[in-house]
What does this fold into?
Amino acid sequence: MLENLFTNIAGLLRNLLDSAGVPPLWNDVTLLVVKLVAILVFILINALWLVLMERKVAGYMQARIGPNRVGPWGLLQTTCDIGKLISKEIPIPKSADKILFLLAPALVFVPPLMIFAAIPFGKDMVALDLNIGLFYVFALASLTTIIFWMGGWGSNNKYSLLGSMRVVAQMVSYELPMILSVLGVIMLVGSMNLTEIIAAQQNMWFIVTQPIAFLIFFIAAVAECNRTPFDLVEGESEIINGPYTEYGGMGFAMFFLAEYASIMIISAMATTIFLGGWLAPFGLTFIPSWLWFFLKMYVLIFVVMWFRWTFPRIRVDQLMGFGWKILVPLSLANVFVTGIGMYIYRAIGW
Amino acid sequence: MFGNGLIKGLRITWKEFTSKKFTVQYPEEQHTKPERFHGRFVFDADKCIACNLCANACPNNVIELKSEKVEKKKFLTKYVMNIEYCLFCGMCVEACNKDAINFSLEHDMSQYNYDAIPLILVEREAPKPEPKPEEATPEASGEKAEPKVKGKGKQKEETPAASADKSASDEVAAGKAPEKEGQ
It folds into this structure.
């Protein structure tokens, strides 16, 4: 019952449209739109509550209890914050490029939505089952760079410009080890389809066979969404707030929420690629597959937040050195070792 | 091992994460205040002899004190503390000979309106002196004025004069009361 909750809802909708005499093409289109809207709502609500989670985690790690006044357990705190931010003016600097300046926060949620469309949330729960799913996901994940660059350039402010240049430098440096680390998994599976990658982990998760790849992927992913210890992009003590310096009101809030959306994405990707996606471990199949997916995803999100409230920010030269001198060679070595391993396994005759 | 420090840091924050929280949920629960807490002032009008020592002791001129003369004694008619200027140093409490002014543990003194800030401790009319002084004094001046008359009437007939600003400074100037110079 719970296992097929969402697929049943989709089937019900399809039958309903069929019985209403809607042609099959329109039926498919409507269903896809419904799925995408559901994902959009899911992302927005999650981003909203992840802000609260972040504050709660921060509080708990500092021996306090975080927001707890608005709503039960503080659950409406961030909703109220967003309500306040919506009601505020978005001040536009006189010398800013107005179109770019306003376009950046409007577009910032597009890549997360497009990525989530391709991620399998559970058994048969993927809006777009692409055969190059992994490629698609990585291509879109790096698209966020352009939006930050747009915001930083359009603001016409030196701190914004510096911040957005850091975004570009950091993302380019860390994209490389991230993709190279996943290469080992692609070699093992022989496919870039996310559903097939999950299916290949039926017996053993790739975190066991590719532990170094997981580590590199996770570190690079944390850097990718500009989180501590790699949050140089908005290093308050150096460049005020990076690309968001000139933004106020909802413009700022969109960037702020997008950060949490990108945390969700990297956690969902790490879950899909290394932690077996929606597969239940130890045969615990009585818990529905989508719940397993979210469980793993939220554990990883918690780890990212745990990093944030533990580690200090690293220096720019350390960031670049770490990326190019340690992560890239390590991931290349991982690809090499995986290749040799596969060759040996094949020679043995597995 | 490389990365040991990172793991150690994570362990520390995890320990904090699971440990007991120290937050005191303010309006519902409060820290216990020490006995000598400098909170809102409480004033015992019965004890006050309107000597003005507290007003003189105050470094910020917070205390506004008015008295009228009823019979031979001073009767306190107004005692207002402009609490917005008060620094809660406690000089007035120390200066008081009669233990009339004291601190309480109350500390929520914020107000919505500026006018509401001054702490009005006493504001009353002085009892009107009756035409026949001998009969009227005990009854008309009320219970409040009575004990003061009885208790301190003989000893301190001159003190009200000393405590009033002008006469006090006169005395100091005349060298009669050198101990009051510092005040």
About this structure: Chain B touches chain A through 13 residues (CB under 8 Å). Residues 89 and 146 of chain B are 33 Å apart (CA to CA). Confidence is low (pLDDT under 50) at residues 140-183 of chain B. The first helix of chain B runs from residue 4 to 18.
